[in-house]
Amino acid sequence: MKVAIIHDWLVVNGGAEKVLQEIITLYPGADLYTLVNFLPEKDTQWLNGCTIHTSFIQTLPFARKQYRLYFPLFPIAIEQFDMSGYDLVISSSHAVAKGVITGPKQTHICYCHSPARYAWDLQHEYLREAKLHSGLKSVLARYFLHKFRIWDTRTSNGVDLFISNSNFIKARIRKCYGRLSETLYPPVDTSRFGLNENKDDYYLAASRLVPYKRIDLIVSSFQQLKDKKLIVVGDGPEMKKIAALASGYPNISILGYQDDKSLLSYISKAKAFIFAAEEDFGIMPVEAQATGTPVLAYGKGGSLETVVDGVTGLFFSEQSTASIIDCIHRFEQMPASFDAAAIRAHSETFSNVTFREKLKYRIELFLKEAR
Question: DSSP strand E in the chain: where?
Answer without folding.
Answer: 3-7, 31-34, 52-54, 88-93, 107-112, 161-164, 182-183, 203-206, 230-233, 252-256, 272-275, 295-298, 313-316
